[in-house]
Design goal:
disordered N terminus, 4-stranded antiparallel β-sheet, Tachylectin-2, Chain A, mainly beta, single chain, 19 strands
């Protein structure tokens, strides 16, 4: 697999967990905000970048759109991560995000897509209960928003494409499909069957968006966090973290010997050794397969392409 160096943002800027959204004739990239040469997660305020939909090489910075200190629960070392945005029925724009490791989800609002955004509140259910604030509630994290044709807004998609990482190290992804937004969903398998590394082409999918004016062009946006660890074999760290999480750490030295890894390579397994300031993106088109013998329920595939152009799609 050839690595193509085609950064969409300047080398000093990194917007992780990218969520591209098209409004008008521009695509807007929302996401977490890592610091250049930073040593912690998402320490910076949210910024927004945009580009013409017909020229994804011409990006401009719209500026800071929301600051951590605007959240009333923020503390000195708080950070915001993995946001998503949607236009509400009132025409305003709602920014969903999580703060540090708080189990609830917050919302900010703006009259325009480019902000500035103001704190709006915590996400609640129909009874007024703040979701994530009570024992037994699901931990709120990585919001993903979708508006159906009837105007209802959901946090998941019809074809569900999930990402996987062990720390910053990528795992196989998974596709599921359902007849309803509410499920049940049927798991279809890994959308990267041609990837021998079983690491989703060394990336973690954060979002999928449809290109307007194109019949079936959907682009999967993925973070490639560990650029300098692409030679580490997936079967090794699959076993490594199984041992870590199941308390079998005494088996780790033998595992390193089995895969002929040096002490230096072992030290590279930790998140602390990952410099996310040099991370980059993988943007690839989806390929839809109709039901057939190989895929009885149909399938969504992601093929590796060294180069591809929007103009080549109907």
């Amino acid at each position: 697999m050839k690595r193509i160096l085609n950064p969409i943002l300047p080398s000093w800027e990194y917007v992780a967990d990218g969520e591209p959204h098209i409004f008008g004739d521009r695509v807007y990239l929302f996401g977490s905000h890592d610091a250049f040469n930073g040593k912690s997660f998402c320490p910076l305020d949210y910024v927004l970048w945009s580009a013409p939909i017909n020229d994804l090489s011409d990006w401009r910075k719209e500026g800071v759109i929301y600051r951590t200190i605007q959240d009333p629960m923020a503390k000195k070392n708080s950070f915001m991560q993995a946001p998503d945005v949607i236009e509400g029925p009132d025409g305003r724009f709602y920014l969903y995000y999580t703060l540090s490791l708080d189990p609830t989800m917050s919302v900010a609002v703006s009259d325009t897509i480019t902000g500035p955004y103001e704190y709006y509140g915590r996400v609640k259910d129909i009874t007024g209960h703040v979701i994530g604030s009570s024992k037994g509630d699901l931990f709120q994290f990585d919001p993903g928003l979708f508006r159906d044709d009837d105007g209802r807004i959901y946090l998941y998609k019809h074809y569900l494409i999930t990402s996987g990482t062990t720390g910053y190290l990528p795992n196989p992804s998974e596709v599921a499909v359902g007849d309803s937004w509410h499920g049940p969903y049927t798991v279809l398998g890994d959308p990267h069957p041609t990837d021998p590394s079983r690491t989703s082409f060394h990336s973690q999918i954060s979002s999928v968006f449809k290109v307007p004016g194109k019949k079936d062009l959907y682009i999967a946006v993925a973070d490639r966090w560990a650029v300098h660890k692409m030679d580490l074999p997936y079967p090794f760290y699959e076993k490594l973290f199984t041992y870590v999480f199941t308390g079998r750490t005494e088996e780790i030295p033998a595992l390193a010997q089995e895969f002929h890894l040096t002490q230096k390579q072992m030290s590279m397994m930790s998140d602390q050794s990952t410099d996310t300031s040099i991370a980059d993106y993988v943007w690839l088109p989806l390929r839809f397969v109709d039901p057939c013998d190989a895929y009885p329920n149909g399938m969504v595939l992601i093929d590796w392409l060294d180069e591809w152009r929007i103009e080549d799609y109907d």
